[in-house]
Structure prediction request, 131 residues.
Amino acid sequence: MTDTWQTIADLANLLDDHSTLPREQQVLFQLLKIQEEAGEVAEAAIGAAGQNPRKGRSHTWQDVESEVCDVIVTGMVALMRMNPDAEAVFAQHMQRIADRDPSRPGRTAAGHSPHARFAPLSSAPSAPEPT
Prediction:
């Protein structure tokens, strides 16, 4: 286990040891925690852009980066609480993502684009001109 995954396992164990809820509820609340952290990303981004008239520029882009890191860590902890072999699960998932990257040597974009099922805009039928 890498240092990162050991830290994640330690966090998951700490949370598991602290909770008196059944395991299924622990996992559910950990999954909900991801959404809570994502909301903090949104709040920080709005604050960094100064888009809340009551608060102005209440955050920095470094705050946004920190909040994104919290989302990632929270997701990793959720995965670990769901499956103790989370490091391998994540590695396999990353390999699937890498395998569908059309920019990798020997790969083409044909059939790998998430938009491949849509016709290109240039070939879409045009609406008749109003008269």
